[in-house]
Design goal:
single chain, 359 residues, alpha/beta, Arc Repressor Mutant, subunit A, Rossmann fold, 7-stranded mixed β-sheet
């Protein structure tokens, strides 16, 4: 006679631990908005290298109401973001937090990470509704914090690694870029990656494309400001658009998994590339198994995937919805289905996987 499995007995100590963990989670959720607030109001910058400041002093430096500054500082102190001196009633930003919260050139710069997270949470009611019937929400339908936060999060990593590490990891590509070739940067967003390459390789020409018109307008403005408008062209176009042929390098930065039809995009890249061309694919760090990604980075990326990446793919034709944690094996399958015969991991960072594909 079959036995009925008995429910596990509730452990009061474990329940209490979980409740207090949940309290910490709520504090962390609110802190995302507090970090964005501090960044937008210039509070971190006013604290940086200022020594210890009282709330009144910080309010004067930043031009923000003292009563709001006081509560914000106490929340930051409780989370370990600023140091509090009870004797003087003053607050200081440690050097490590100064680098992470105020230095836009640092690879550890974090405000964009918080900004895109906050933008995703703001739009979460729309995703909740879409999830009921499996509908999608396009990237273009999100709020400004998602667009700006995305660029500000990824740009420091690109600044640190794209030219000195990722491109040299590709077979013979740097030499071609120095001599002068055509490059397609697909899904370029605000154009940070395109402009970085154009600045480093003035003999090459670059075509950046993205289906989001507002992002392309920003990219054009940034290219003019950077002085590379003579060798960079930005187009509003979907990933499967034919940009011509004869490209020696095609790049996709943190966007292949967002596409509705990544295999179709891979086929289009294959058609664009010359016979000895290279496709550089940068994707979020992920293992091939769920258990490989049960860590802080995987947790953040699964969250972004739920609110941003998966809905974006489902809003497009095919809607393959690879998700931000697709992993090397699934990306390799997409590349192979697109007609590429060579695929390898060329590099990695704590946040990214870097792949090289060749015809």
């Amino acid at each position: 006679m079959p036995t009925t499995e008995q429910p596990a007995e509730l452990d009061p100590d474990k329940l209490e631990q979980f409740v207090f963990r949940a309290v910490d989670e709520v504090g962390a959720t609110l802190n995302a908005a507090l970090v964005v607030m501090g960044d937008k109001l210039g509070l971190y910058r006013a604290l940086a290298d200022a020594g210890s400041l009282t709330p009144i002093e910080l309010a004067r430096r930043s031009g923000v109401s003292e009563r709001y500054v006081r509560e914000w500082l106490n929340a930051q102190a409780a989370g370990g973001y600023v140091d509090y001196d009870p004797a003087g009633g003053s607050y200081a930003l440690p050097p490590e937090q100064t680098a992470a919260l105020t230095d836009e050139e640092s690879p550890a710069y974090l405000p964009g990470f918080f900004q895109i997270a906050l933008g995703a949470v703001i739009d979460s009611p729309r995703i909740t509704e879409a999830a009921k019937d499996g509908g999608g929400v396009g990237w273009h339908e999100h709020n400004h914090d998602v667009f700006e936060g995305c660029e500000r999060f990824f740009r420091p990593g690109y600044n640190a690694a794209l030219v000195p590490d990722w491109l040299p990891a590709l077979d013979g590509v740097v030499e071609k870029l120095e001599a002068g070739i055509k490059v397609a940067d697909i899904g370029c967003g605000h154009g940070s990656s395109t402009i970085l390459m154009a600045e480093a390789f003035p003999n090459s020409t670059f075509v950046g494309s993205d289906y989001h018109e507002a992002s392309i307008e920003t990219a054009r403005r940034r290219a003019d400001e950077a002085g590379v408008g003579d060798r960079v062209r930005f187009e509003t176009a979907a990933a499967g658009t034919d940009h011509g042929d004869g490209f020696e390098l095609a790049t996709m930065f943190d966007c292949l998994h967002d596409m509705g039809d990544p295999v179709g995009a891979a086929r289009q890249v294959r058609r664009m590339l010359s016979p000895d061309g290279t496709w550089l694919i940068v994707e979020p760090m992920a293992g091939d198994r769920v258990e490989d990604n049960l860590n802080p980075v995987g947790r953040a990326y699964y969250g972004f995937s739920t609110f941003l990446c998966t809905p974006a793919s489902l809003s497009q034709e095919v809607g393959l919805a690879l998700g931000a944690q697709a992993g090397e094996a699934r990306i390799g399958d997409v590349v192979s289905a697109g007609g590429f015969t060579r695929f390898r991991r060329a590099g990695e960072t704590p946040f990214n996987l870097v792949f090289e594909a060749r015809p």
